[in-house]
Amino acid sequence: MQSALDFMVLISLASSAFNDLQQLDDRDHGSEWLANFRRLVNDAHVTSETITTLLALMSASVSNGSALPPYLRVPEPHQLTQRLDEMDKDILSVRHIAEPGYSSFAVIQIGTKCMLDDLRKILAGVKDHWHDATANVSIADLRVSPLPENKAIFRAFVSKPDWLRLATSFNYASQLETIANSSVNEINFLSYDDSFANDVLGPDFSQEFITQTSWTAFHEAGVYNIETGKLYATSNWAGSADNPINVTAIDISNNNSVESIRYDHLAEANGACAYYPPGTPVNSSEGQAIVFCDEGDFDHPSRLTLVEPATNTSRVLLNNFLGRNFSSLNDVTQHPVTGDLWFTDTQYGYWQYFRPEPTIRQQVYRFEPLTGVVQAVADYFYAPNGIELSPDWKHIYVTDTGVHTFPGKDNLTNPASIYRFDITPDGKRLENRQLFAYSDDGFPDGIHTDTRGNVYSACGDGVQVWNPSGVLIGKFVVNGGVNNFAFVPNGMYIFNADKLFKVTIKAQGRTVARDFGLANQSDGNGNGAEDHGRRHSGHWGPPS
């Protein structure tokens, strides 16, 4: 260890001397070599490696007896000398040894290699000392099968935190956060319970970084349309009426190509869900469309807008509550049996300065598309946001993002919570409000359930997952957080503002079978799908 520290000191001194030279104007140092060297370094676009995280984790391991994650490794040197040699064969010739800066650069390069060699030995020793690497941060190293080189699909690792250590150690919590956020373009996985690794991820899970756009294309919604074969997301508000929110179409059947689309009657799109005409059998995908929450702006009211992507047509379903303006409709879900739309209305259009001051409470509503009946069904939220049904259709989950209102004015004592309600037996009201979960990072935004009843929500550190009892079982950790995500067959697309990820997992989203046309029209016993919308334990629910 002392040798590595000595090299670090040497590198620091050489770097300081070299930086002093770099600050001089070319006329001051009078060296043509240094001027050429500076130009080549700028053209090389080199990013420096950092070993701070590595040293912190090794220190914590030695001090606390905690195991190191098995994927932790010493970074490779950035090979600047090789790149410079490729750009100019003469630049590093020893004939320039007397030039100002040459010796400092040589010391930095040689010292870095020696330091990294020493750190590899230290890291191996620490791992050998704590050879029971699965005791506290148990990892499953699952390699994905080989794929074409143009696919950015990574080997995936799962870290298993220790609940007991986490209960009494702030340092351990910081260590987990450091591990989880160690990469910008990769997803890390934290499994707080075996059910996350076994039932959510499964044995063959993988991750893929798909694309990055120049705007925040991947913000909300995430609804598949069978006719077009595309997944429809919505972008974020860009701060100007001249640059409104667009619908982002992701062609998941054609190499995930991305395009922006505008629809009539849709000024500022946000949340959305697949829409089926009320009365459609619950296993049928006939008549599929998409209903968007339009937040509105200063010239357009907030509304529910029905879009037919295949024909690029749209129409308004609802744009007021008995003559009163909504604030900014945020998210919506459809009950498979009744066909009713349950949606949230919050103030984000006002908080983001593209809607007038609200004149109505922030509430949850139920809307009957066939009759026009609209009913307020829940209130006392700071900011009702995402909304989702349980897979048995007995409960509704609503996220409250009250911690985040006006930009720069977050109040950490406000809700960052998920509430669960029971749907009354007639399918029209909500009762028995319960605090289901509280996000430890950021706030829960978009929300979905899987067929096992697990609840997923987009949070400040990625997608968090709770079991039906509200216990955190795992996280898909994404640097910078997630606003929403979309289940697809055998996987999930994750929206990270301007970045799009995909994970291949075992869990299946609640609506995937129907939304992708995979649900059977018959139960195999001659009973049509229309028989499956019967009462279930006193509630409108799926077949038993």
From TrEMBL:
<protein>
    <recommendedName>
        <fullName>SMP-30/Gluconolactonase/LRE-like region domain-containing protein</fullName>
    </recommendedName>
</protein>
<dbReference type="InterPro" id="IPR011042">
    <property type="entry name" value="6-blade_b-propeller_TolB-like"/>
</dbReference>
<dbReference type="InterPro" id="IPR013658">
    <property type="entry name" value="SGL"/>
</dbReference>
<keyword id="KW-0732">Signal</keyword>
<dbReference type="Pfam" id="PF08450">
    <property type="entry name" value="SGL"/>
</dbReference>
<feature type="domain" description="SMP-30/Gluconolactonase/LRE-like region">
    <location>
        <begin position="290"/>
        <end position="478"/>
    </location>
</feature>
<dbReference type="InterPro" id="IPR052988">
    <property type="entry name" value="Oryzine_lactonohydrolase"/>
</dbReference>
<feature type="region of interest" description="Disordered">
    <location>
        <begin position="517"/>
        <end position="544"/>
    </location>
</feature>
<feature type="signal peptide">
    <location>
        <begin position="1"/>
        <end position="16"/>
    </location>
</feature>
